[in-house]
Amino acid sequence: MSTRSLVVVTAGLSQPSSTRLLADRLAAATSRAMAERGEAVDVRVVELRELANELTNHLLTGFPSGALAEAVEAVRTADALIAVTPIFNASYSGLFKTFFDVLDEGSLDGVPVLLAATGGTARHSLAVDFAMRPLFAYLRADAVATGVFAASEDWGSAGRHGPLGRRIERAGGELAAAVAGRPRVQRVDPFDEPTPFEQLLAGG
Fold first, then answer.
1. Closest CA to 24 of 127, 123, 118
2. What's the number of domains the chain is made of?
């Protein structure tokens, strides 16, 4: 049985967080669907609230360090990604956007991504399609068709056979189908083969 890497990026601010709860449910559904296809999953969760200071430092210095560097590398080499954010003012959170801003160009090229969000009211439910999906299209990720939004009142139907639970299972199945059996996308680190300084001077 092959093993795929699944990275879960969650931008919840509170602890415990409904955003993290949704992320865990989606990861579990994806893992089950992958197992049914004969593939194991190595799940890594990236809690952005724990990286807030390092993200700010990165914006100032231009270089990730410590746990942020590890998270960036995990995302860059992932076979699949689950991205979950709370919704504020009809869009993703600033912390969520900042993390994806610091990724190198091409980091998500062709990566299957499941998009999900939480909010206090169902009025924000369209944010997955009208805010998150364009962001990941710009990053050239391969977002699955089903996005998942969970408002506060939806958690009463979060069992696998309730409306939210069924949507979670469907989205997890779509992500598993997108990644199972496909070769890993080869993404080159631009620092692996840097241009020699002499060549840069000659080009100038």
1. 118
2. 1
Question: Per residue in 118-169, pLDDT tens?
Answer: 998 888 899 999 999 999 999 999 999 999 999 988 888 767 778 999 999 9
DSSP helix/strand/coil, 46: strand
Nearest to 127 by CA among 89, 98, 94: 89
151-159: Cβ within 8 A, 24+ apart: 151/118, 151/119, 151/120, 151/121, 151/122, 151/124, 151/125, 152/18, 152/119, 152/120, 152/121, 153/122, 154/122, 155/18, 158/25
**pLDDT exceeds cutoff 80 at 76:** yes
Residue 159 per-residue DSSP state: S
Partnered with residue 142 across adjacent β-strands are 112
DSSP states of 125-147: TTHIIIIIHHHHHHTT-EE-S--
Distance CA 31, CA 28 (A): 5
For 75, 90, 103, 173, 204, the CA distances from 50, given in Å and listed in that order, are 16, 24, 17, 29, 42
What CATH number does residue 21 fall under? 3.40.50.360
Domain span at residue 190 reads 2-203
